[in-house]
């Protein structure tokens, strides 16, 4: 009885051990299969990651190669136009030359073209900006604006140039400054997520009709105030374009040409350029003649000298955008210079158009350009030369600022601020969605 039980127990133990061994072997095989699968998955994941990195590199390289250098050159041209306009307008020559004199007519014509610089800037923003929207870019522009608004005021106070009574006020560029473009752009930026969605959802014909409607209403119909004694008020409150609403309209214009860029087909590149140049010059002459006529007849033509909403200025700006967006820059020297100066254009604007710089350094300080002994040709040469001096001097300053911003990692700080902003707004939305 005991032996039998012992035998049975041993047999049971052997059977149990065999089952354990079998189970362990099966588990080991399963484990090996899982390890093999894991290795295979890791290998697939590794290859996938490498493929994604390669694709990203290729896309980044293609986007870099496809960067529209013509538009980068357009930013440089736009700021150059703005500097020239400020010299002619704020510097004094435009209003100190004799009416109907050759010098006065030339200055009115040049100023008409130079005033398109602001519209070109706004359209370029729409041309390239409707693809994405990052608040880090707005934070960066705010840092840059504060840097110059306060920094220039502090510097001029130290060297006793102009009267800087309230230095603290220059800490707040959004509230106390003459940087109307920054104030308008800052306001517009909060509407861009919705605007960009609308732009991407519209068809070419639909968007073309929409932009044409904006042009007829806010530019053409808005001109009534210049030709009617009864309706002579700014009934759209556009303040001649010094407002965020005008920048939004320019953004729509630019985004139309940016989104459907590949659909604008022309047979001859040179014929395309020639037609746009012809239209540009025609409307510049037409507007100049209207201004001269109104000044001669004492119809307050000076009000039209700076009017960004003008139909002729809009058409001139569109012609420039058409030319610049199709401009091919293949020369290595030009490419390097365009890519170097293009990021500095906003800084150049901030420096030379600072409230104190304009009032104490530029305002009425270029009357020497219109001395009696000078002819019209020398007037143009000297005026353009002065604008080049301002452009390069401000470029040097802004390049130093750019290096300082890189040193203090301002771009990274702006990215962190954008992340915090999104996190805070998401938490606020989450709170209201769950408790209200």
Q: What are the secondary-structure elements, in order, as H or E?
A: HHHHHHHHHHHHHHHHH
**How would you classify the helix and strand content by structural class?**
mainly alpha
Give the tally of β-strands.
0
Main beta-sheet annotation: none
Number of domains: 1
Number of helices: 17
Please state the CA-atom Rg, rounded to the nearest Å: 32 Å
Whole-Å distance between the termini?
80 Å
Principal-axes geometry comes out as: globular
Strand residue percentage: under 5%
Could you characterize the architecture of this molecule?
The chain has 436 residues and is mainly alpha-helical. The chain has one domain. The protein has helices at 2-65, 69-89, 93-96, 102-114, 116-129, 135-158, 180-189, 192-201, 204-220, 244-259, 269-296, 311-325, 332-341, 345-352, 355-362, 376-407, 410-435. Helix 5 (116-129) packs across helix 10 (244-259) and helix 9 packs antiparallel against helix 10 (244-259). The termini are far apart. The relative contact order is 0.13.
Brief descriptors of the model:
single chain, mainly alpha, disordered N terminus
SSE order and pairing:
Blueprint: H1 2-65, H2 69-89, H3 93-96, H4 102-114, H5 116-129, H6 135-158, H7 180-189, H8 192-201, H9 204-220, H10 244-259, H11 269-296, H12 311-325, H13 332-341, H14 345-352, H15 355-362, H16 376-407, H17 410-435
Summarize the structure.
The chain has helices at residues 2-65, 69-89, 93-96, 102-114, 116-129, 135-158, 180-189, 192-201, 204-220, 244-259, 269-296, 311-325, 332-341, 345-352, 355-362, 376-407, 410-435.
């Amino acid at each position: 009885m005991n032996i039998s039980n012992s035998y049975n127990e041993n047999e049971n133990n052997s059977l149990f051990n065999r089952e354990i061994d079998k189970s362990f072997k099966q588990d080991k095989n399963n484990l090996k299969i899982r390890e093999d699968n894991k290795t295979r998955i890791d290998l697939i994941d590794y290859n996938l990651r490498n493929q994604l990195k390669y694709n990203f590199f290729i896309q980044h390289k293609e986007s870099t190669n496809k960067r529209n250098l013509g538009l980068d050159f357009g930013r440089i041209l736009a700021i150059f136009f703005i500097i020239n306009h400020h010299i002619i307008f704020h510097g004094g020559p435009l209003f100190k030359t004799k009416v109907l004199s050759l010098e006065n007519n030339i200055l009115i014509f040049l100023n008409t073209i130079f005033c398109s610089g602001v519209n070109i800037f706004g359209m370029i923003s729409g041309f390239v900006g409707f693809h994405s929207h990052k608040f880090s870019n707005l934070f960066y522009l705010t840092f840059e604006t504060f840097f110059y608004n306060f920094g220039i005021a502090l510097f001029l106070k130290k060297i006793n140039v102009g009267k800087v009574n309230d230095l603290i006020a220059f800490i707040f560029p959004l509230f106390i400054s003459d940087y109307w473009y920054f104030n308008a752009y800052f306001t517009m930026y909060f509407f861009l997520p919705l605007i960009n969605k609308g732009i991407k959802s519209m068809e070419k014909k639909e968007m073309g009709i929409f932009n044409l409607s904006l042009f007829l209403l806010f530019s053409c119909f808005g001109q009534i105030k210049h030709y009617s004694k009864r309706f002579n008020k700014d009934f759209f409150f556009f303040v001649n374009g010094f407002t965020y609403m005008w920048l939004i309209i320019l953004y729509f214009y630019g985004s139309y040409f940016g989104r459907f860029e590949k659909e604008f087909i022309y047979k001859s590149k040179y014929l395309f350029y020639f037609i746009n140049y012809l239209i540009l010059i025609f409307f510049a002459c037409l507007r100049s003649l209207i201004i001269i006529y109104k000044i001669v007849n004492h119809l307050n033509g000076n009000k039209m000298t700076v009017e960004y909403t003008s139909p002729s200025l809009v058409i001139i700006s569109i012609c420039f955008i058409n030319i610049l967006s199709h401009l091919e820059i293949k020369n290595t020297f030009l490419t390097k210079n365009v890519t170097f100066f293009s990021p500095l254009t906003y800084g150049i604007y901030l420096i030379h158009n600072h409230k104190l710089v304009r009032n104490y350094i530029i305002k009425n300080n270029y009357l020497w350009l219109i001395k009696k002994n000078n002819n019209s040709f020398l007037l143009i040469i000297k005026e353009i030369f002065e604008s080049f001096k301002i452009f390069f001097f401000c470029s040097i300053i802004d390049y130093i600022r750019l290096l300082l911003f890189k040193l203090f990692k301002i771009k990274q700080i702006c990215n962190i601020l954008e992340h915090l902003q999104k996190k805070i707004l998401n938490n606020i939305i989450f709170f209201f969605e769950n408790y209200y």
